[in-house]
Amino acid sequence: MNQADLFLDDSFHINRRQFFGRSALGLGTASMASLLSSDLLGRSVPTEGLHHKATAKRVIYLFMSGGPSHIDMWDYKPRLSEEYGKDLPPEVRDGQRITGMTSGQKTLPLAPSKFEFTKCDNNDKGVWVSSLLPYTSKITKELCVVHGTFTEAINHDPAITYIQTGSQIPGRPSLGSWLSYGLGSMNENLPNYVVMLARTNHPQQSLFNRLWGTGFMPSDHQGILFRAAENPVLYLKNPQGVTRGDRRAQLDALAALNQNHYQEFADPEVLSRIKQHEMAYRMQASIPELHGYEG
Amino acid sequence: MLAAHRTASVWLKWITSDDQPLTARVLVNRFWLMVFGDGLVRTPEEFGLQGEHPTHPELLDWMAVDFQENGWNLKRLLKQFLTSRTFKQSSARRSDFPDPENKYWGRGPSYKLDAEVVRDLSLWSSGLLNRKIGGEGFKPYQPSGMWIALSHPNSDTKNYEMNKDDSIYRRSLYMYWKRTSPHPMMTLFDAPSRESSCVQRSRTSTSLQSLALFNETQRMETARKLAERLLRDEQRIITGSSIFSPCLLPASQARWSPQLCPPYWTMLRAGSPCRRRMPARCLNRASPQWMKNYP
Description:
The structure holds 2 protein chains of 2 kinds.
Chain A: H1 3-6, H2 16-22, H3 29-41, H4 78-82, H5 90-93, E1 117-120, E2 127-130, H6 156-165, H7 175-183, E3 194-196, E4 224-226, H8 244-265, H9 268-291
Parallel strand pairs in A: 3-4
Antiparallel strand pairs in A: 1-2
Helix pairs in contact in A: 8-9
Chain B: H1 2-15, H2 21-36, H3 57-69, H4 74-82, H5 85-88, H6 115-126, H7 184-187, H8 207-215, H9 217-232, H10 234-239, H11 261-270, H12 288-291
């Protein structure tokens, strides 16, 4: 009799860390429960701990790197017009370092935005929108504008690190990683967290892997970059001359070897490897389909 | 200044003094973690109230004191680990002793190798490894467009240019590391981003790793070279006189045997639709058992 047969209870092989590490039982148990309840269970599941029913199933998050300044779009500062041309009062800066772009200037004159601002209705106290956004200013009732975000550091890098990870210093998980960890996904054929970069001809700021990185969380929650290249996902395509049938045959042989290994060692990691190879094989079909062209 | 200097040296003397067991304990635990896959203290970053108790406090204490008394000799410490009965045990799960997390160390280590080791091992097995020590880093194969997609227009690392010589076969230790966009064969396989300190790497199992193992250029190259080696040495492998013979055994068998080896070889070959194409991924995971059969 081989080793693995002796363990009748499959759960025996999985330790606590692996269990919590792999399943969706992270902080998002409640969210997952509500997902499951609508899709699978057909009955309501109590969502204790939340003050409302979790309904979000997916999040689309657009980050406009290198977009126009908030000063010219949303951040109406009438006093800048009043004080136009005067030097920045020292107490505003309070000795803080300034960027290389302005540090050579003899004076630091104040200047308002060139654009007109209009106050628009938003079901509350109104929101000021500049003339750069003629359409958006008509739909402000549908929008939530947050003005309170700021950073202490002076450059783009800590600021965009902060907006993506909640900390100006690298090392924290990005927003999407938290969602992948907390919410999980019902779709086994696609990554939980996908990142797409727009291609633009305008000069832009640099971006960093950490903006969709996992920080201290397991790296399977990292954002997966969908690329506008031949391979939308890295290493998706089989090399030239290897057909899908070849890959299937190879995976079958490999799975047999891995099964053998599992019979001897009963290490659950081996089964997980087999499963991931199979999922990769499915992704080779599902991702080109998603991208709208054939693989 | 004098005071600051004295404070630093006092602090250094204190953390390394004979009366201070913590430093040596933490260090011994980290090296134990590297060799055995888990620490005696399962929270290597936290030896305080939030941390876990050591599984074997007396052993940890003994090793820490022994380490101090022998001049903090790391080589000696590693030798102690590698020649211990604990390390030399079989990694197979034991039916007589259920311990999923191996907290009693009743079986040998079994864990996924680090990203760098996975790459180095495939280079070694294919015979392509360049053993040059020291010197400038190298830039290996990398999918096109990865750097330019993130870079500032004025960046001097905007364009990736891989090395055109045999430096691309050097150990991963020397791989060029751009922190804002590290090599995907590292980040996909749990190498830390190097933006903040990391005491323990995550060990994930993802389908993107599978895709990378299937299709990454250097993996393809090493697989092809390894296949060449295996086909050339077929007779010696089957008769047990090749260093690859032990790979073709069920991993629990320490020695080659004529009953066990040929069926494995047949199974491996079955994965290849054409006799000239050989899958070589039997080497992705190495348990210490088979490592120790190697020169």
